[in-house]
Design goal:
The protein has helices spanning 51-66, 77-87, 94-112, 122-132, 138-157, 185-193, 199-210, 214-217, 262-279, 303-317, 329-340, 345-352, 358-364, 374-382, and strands spanning 17-21, 26-30, 45-48, 225-226, 236-239, 256-259. With 392 residues, it is mostly helical. The chain folds into three domains: 17-66; 77-168, Tyrosine recombinase, N-terminal domain (DNA polymerase, domain 1, Orthogonal Bundle); 185-382, Orthogonal Bundle (hpI Integrase, Chain A), CATH 1.10.443. A hairpin with a 4-residue loop joins strand 1 and strand 2. Helix 6 (185-193) crosses helix 10, helix 7 (199-210) packs antiparallel against helix 9 (262-279) and helix 7 packs across helix 11. The longest helix is centred in the middle third of the chain and has 20 residues, at 138-157. The radius of gyration is 31 Å and the shape is elongated.
Length: 392
């Protein structure tokens, strides 16, 4: 007789039991936990096609009970992710929340959302990620796994699941990400002439010739733009805050003061005068706390709005396929142009707030002055005509 179908002795009171349920066509396993306050027997149950499967589930169930929690029977991956998105992201930036929701909606819910969390295994997560690896880049895969991992951890903290199988998984290599591009000198000269007199022109001139990050340029206020020389200091921009949460900078070396090339000073002065003239009708002056590149509503411009206007400028400048460029590539172009000009990599690293030599790192942590002038001087040389006049 087959061992799976062989009858066993009847379980004594207080013992676990496994029995065949003819109506369900499955083996049922029950853990005896005594009686409820209402006087009814408390017997959590599991089921399976074989006794071996039921015994394994009983062991898992007892381990969960010993740890003081139990995975809810019908709690799904989709529910765990939705709960984390609703409750676990308080205080996060809107952009981050949007990214997490988009990843969940596109890659988690349609693929493994209906899977019950109690039956989700590490192999299931591996298989799912391998399928996604054919569609998205490695960085996105890592973020996708992070969303799942944090969602299950959120469920753990609320007693809805015992173990986090995503902790045992490593994200695979995905599709190669889109490589960053850099403008050539001739392309840079073209876009520095495009849409002159507009806010996006001033934005591009500042970002390309000073090397600020998009998240540093958008929240820039006039109190941090010094257009007039003050003693020994040249006109400069104080890159001291970003659109990151609470306005903090990306790294401890990102807070810096950068001299502006002569062309940037000229463009920014003209742009400031235009902005002030536009305010005269409302009987107010330009204030230090006013945004340099505000939306017409007066609020901070979104990254999407800046990117859309930037691509329009590229189209006017005659660049092919303007929609293939992002505003962040103004920064990579800044680095490339300076490198081609022969500026030392250590100086470039200081300008863009990246890691440099140990000495630079040790000094730069405290250094907001003097203004870092190397980039401005090099850009003056790159974009000066034969007579020495600034400008593209």
């Amino acid at each position: 007789m087959d061992n799976e179908s062989a009858p066993g002795r009847k379980a004594a009171n207080g013992e676990d039991s496994i029995y065949w349920d003819k109506s369900k066509g499955r083996y049922i396993g029950a853990v005896s936990l005594g009686y409820t306050p209402a006087g009814k027997r408390h017997r959590p149950k599991v089921s399976g096609k074989t006794k071996t499967e039921v015994r394994r589930k009983l062991r898992d169930l007892k381990r969960e009970l010993e740890q003081g929690s139990r995975t809810l029977a019908n709690y799904t991956v989709e529910q765990a992710v939705d709960d984390w998105l609703a409750q676990g992201l308080r205080g996060r930036a809107d952009g981050s929340v949007y990214t997490y929701r988009s990843l969940a909606r596109t890659h988690i819910t349609p693929e493994i959302g209906r899977t019950k969390l109690k039956s989700l295994e590490a192999d299931d997560v591996d298989t799912w990620l391998d399928g996604r690896a054919e569609l998205i880049a490695t960085a996105s895969l890592k973020l996708l796994l992070s969303v799942l991992r944090r969602s299950i951890a959120h469920a753990q903290r609320r007693g809805r699941v015992v173990r986090n199988v995503a902790d045992y998984v490593v994200a695979p290599e995905g599709r190669p990400g889109r490589p960053s591009k850099s403008l050539s000198l001739s392309q840079a000269e073209s876009i520095l002439r495009a849409e002159a007199g507009t806010w996006i022109h001033a934005y591009v001139v500042l970002a390309l010739l000073v090397g600020t990050r998009p998240e540093e340029t958008r929240p820039l206020t006039w109190q941090h733009v010094r257009l007039d020389a003050d003693g020994e200091e040249k006109p400069h921009v104080q890159v001291w805050r970003s659109v990151r949460r609470h306005g903090e900078m990306k790294t401890h070396k990102s807070r810096r003061s950068l001299a502006m090339p002569r062309h940037v000073v000229a463009v920014m002065k003209e742009y400031r005068d235009q902005q002030q003239a536009a305010l005269e009708g409302s009987n107010r002056s330009l204030l230090p706390e006013d945004l340099v590149f505000p939306h017409p509503s007066g609020k901070l411009r979104t990254a999407q709005d800046v990117r859309r206007n930037f691509r329009g400028l590229l189209k006017e400048a005659g660049l092919p396929d303007p929609h293939s460029w992002t505003t962040r590539e103004l920064r990579t172009s800044f680095v490339s142009l300076l490198s081609d000009h022969g500026l030392r990599i250590e100086d470039i690293a200081r300008l863009v707030g990246h890691s440099g030599s140990s000495t630079t790192e040790r000094v730069y942590r405290k250094q907001l002055r003097p203004v870092i002038e190397a980039g401005a001087e090099a850009m003056d040389e790159i974009f000066s005509d034969k007579d020495g006049a600034a400008g593209p």
